[in-house]
Structures are given as structure tokens and as C-alpha cells.
Amino acid sequence: MRRLLPIFVVLLAIVAILVEPVNASRPKQQPISSPIVDDTALTRFIIEILPDSTYFCITGALDPTRSGNSETALLFQTVRVVCPDLTAMQRAVRALKDCKEIKIKKLRHDIEKARSTDPAGYRGITVRFVWQDQEKTIQLLTFQQLRWLLWASTILPNDPKADTKANRSYAIAVSDYLDGIERGESPTKIPYAADFGLPQRFDLYQPLADDEIAFTDTVAEITTSFVRGITAFAPTDSALAEFKLLATNETFAETDSSMFQWQCREFFSSGQVLPNIKTLSSEGFRQLVPGNYAFAVGADNTVRFTKITESNTRRWSQLPHALLFCNQEVLTSGTFVIERDTIVHISKINIRSHTLLGNLATETEPRQLSDQRLTTLGRFFQALDRLGISYHGILISKF
User: How many helices (H) and strands (E) does the chain have?
Assistant: First the structure.
């Protein structure tokens, strides 16, 4: 068999030589469709051409392995540009049209009315264009439209044949409900799956079972490898070095889809708005007012944060971590406290060890999991170092 291999290789070479002139005589090939992956080059390009005010964040595919109808699958497999509102979305489209480095082949709007065809209920804009001799597709969504897509990804069937009239009607009803929130209209009745003859598990706001939120003691002791037996401490330089050393590159999802929808509901009903969520910078830090802030460090090491607005809802819903990166995975998250004496400084930082731990590691004891989360704060300290923001004398706590 081994003796036959050289002969086989020679035959392949001869075939290649014979085919090459034929290919050379062909007209210029059509743009090659790029594989569905997290296209970091495309994401960077989009960031360069879109004004900052036109998007809330840009993220990769929601579900690269999504199957089913080709058009439905495409919505889950493309780069997503999440815009703060409808006006910003239109400005983003104009920036794409004005860009001379791309050639738009198809621009589809589904904004004014929820799509009744596949996928039923979708609102947004999809843009197919040629860039660097490759065909690309991106979608532009508002935050509320993204909420619909996240809900639809877990509820709507992959197989179009498994779709039903009830499914489609409810998907449109949920889309219309979120669109009303988008346009600032008077609150409408929340559509329930049961009204469409569907199981409760299809609800946009699914009831959260007690076991979906893991609780530890109100005050949990720190039991890391280098600090233990206390609940708060002012770290030495060596302790901070340990935090940075133990902080891994592993990312985790801050919440699941149902909790994300609940957090969105509480966030907007408490009067908060997306522009309150900002990216931490050296200059912006000096402008912060004293108070409590929720933060998260994204996979790209950027820090996003928002001031916590107290409400009369459950404590866990006060921390909109999942909104900071649109339900993407993060490196770490928690809260920090800003104080101002002679200068603005971070006086405290902590994780919420008794909340938001549900569904993160079903086989890990909550107290142990919260200690694992605590060590990830090293990623936050690394980000502060890059920004030149001092955290000397900071108090680290866990509660």
C-alpha cells in the first residue's frame, strides 16, 4: 500500500496541472461566502465605520450551530450590531450605505411590523454585502429586538415543520409587546403562552423556581487559597498579585435566558435606560459621582458599568450584570463603591456571593462557587492597571 502512495501523489499533481489552465481562463469568481464563525476581523471593521452613538455593542453569532430554515438560521449565525434605539439603527444603516469599502447586495427592513413569515415575529434589519471579495451578512437590532431573539432562540423550534400557528401567533405577540416598550408607549398586557394554548415554559417571563437562584449565607466567609476565615479585607500587594495570578481567561454566562428577561423588565420598569451603561475609561472615571455601581469585564477586557438604582424588587434583580454585555459571557462581574474626598476613588469591591449563581455550575456548592468567582476579580484589577486607575487601600468583600 505504501508503494502506491507516491504514484497516487504524482497522479494528483498531473490532474492539478491539467485543471489549472481551465480555472485560469474562467471569468472572475463571485465573492466567496465566509464560514459562520465569530468574525473578529469583520467586527473590527464594523466598529471602525459605525459612529459610537449608533450602537450599544457589537457581538458575535448567537448560535453558530443553529439549524432549520436557512433564513431563520442566518439570524442566529451572524454578527449582531445592538443599537440603543430605532433612530440609532437608521443612522447605522446610513453609515453602512456611505461606506465605500463595501457593496451592499441586499438590505431588508423588518421594523414597522413583525414578520409573519419565517421567522415569525422577527424585527430588525439584515444587511448582506461584499467586503474584501467576501460576502458577509450582519444584522442590526435594537436592545428590545435582541430580547425577542434571545427568547426565540430557546422557544421556537429549529425545524420549520415543527412550527405551529399557535407558536407563530405568540412569537408575533411577544414581538409587538417588546416593540411597544421600544417606542415608549403605555404598557400593554404581557402576552402569556397560555392565551395561545401553549405551555407555560414558552412565556417571555417564565416563573423562576426557588432552585434557580442559589443562596449562601447572608455573609459568607472568604475561603480562597490565600485569604480565609474573614468576610472583608484590605489586600496587601502580595494578595492583589495573587488575585491577578489566579484570574483565568475562562468566561462564564452571568445569567440564563429567563433571568435575563426578568432583569430587563426590572431594569426598565425602575426608570433606568441603556445610555446609563458606559465603558470605563480614565477620563470618565474622574467624572463619577459617589455611589454603588454594577460592573462586568467582557471577554475583550473592556469594563462596562452602570450606577445601581435601588428599587422595591428582589435584591437579585437590582444588579443588571446581564445587561452590561447583552447576555454575553464575561470574565468577571460584581459591584464597586465610589467615594470622593480629595479625589474620586474606588473604596470597595465585591461579588454578590449569594445571588446570581443559579445555573452557573450545577455540581458546585454555592459557597465554593462564590469563592471561585471572587478570584476572578483579578481581571478587574488588571483592567484598572491598564486604565491607570488607582485602587490603593481598596476593601474587598463578599456578601
Answer: 12, 16
- DSSP 8-state class, residue 389: -
Q: Do 273 and 184 share a structural domain?
A: no
Q: From residue 7, how far is each of 18, 20, 45, 235 by CA, in Å?
A: 17, 20, 47, 69
Q: Are residues 179 and 216 in the same domain?
A: no
Q: By the 8 A CB rule, do 306 and 320 touch?
A: yes
Residues of the chain with pLDDT under 50: 1-37, 312-317, 353-361
Last-in-domain residue among 179, 202, 225: 202
Specify the pTM: 0.78
- Where is the domain boundary, 169, 202, 235? 202
Q: How many domains does the chain have?
A: 2
| In a shared domain, residues 282 and 170 | no
Phi then psi dihedrals of residue 191, to 5 deg = -75, 130
Query: Please, are residues 136 and 129 in contact by the beta-carbon 8 Å criterion?
Result: yes
The DSSP secondary-structure symbol of 364 reads S
Task: Enumerate residues 6+ apart whose C-beta is below 8 A from 112.
Answer: none
Q: Does the residue 290 lie in any domain?
A: yes
Looking at the structure, do residues 159 and 262 belong to the same domain, yes or no?
no
Alpha helices by DSSP H, the chain: 4-24, 40-49, 70-77, 86-98, 143-155, 165-182, 237-246, 257-269, 282-285, 321-324, 366-375, 377-387
Q: Distances from the Cα of 20 to the Cαs of 27, 63, 104, 299, in angstroms? A: 13, 38, 32, 44
Shortest CA distance to 182 belongs to which of 216, 222, 226, 148?
Answer: 148
Burial class (CB in 10 A: 0-12, 13-18, 19+), 64: middle
240 and 117 in a common domain? no
| Confidence (pLDDT) at 116 | 84
* 307 sits in which H/E element: strand 303-307
My answer on whether 104 and 252 are in the same domain is: no
Tell me the per-residue pLDDT of 225-254, one tens digit each, with 9 for 90 and over.
777 776 778 889 998 999 999 898 888 776
Q: Flag whether 103 is in a domain.
A: yes
What span, in angstroms and rounded, lies between the C-alpha atoms of 79 and 65? 14
β-bridge mates for residue 59, sequence order: 80
Predicted local confidence at residue 311, as pLDDT: 55
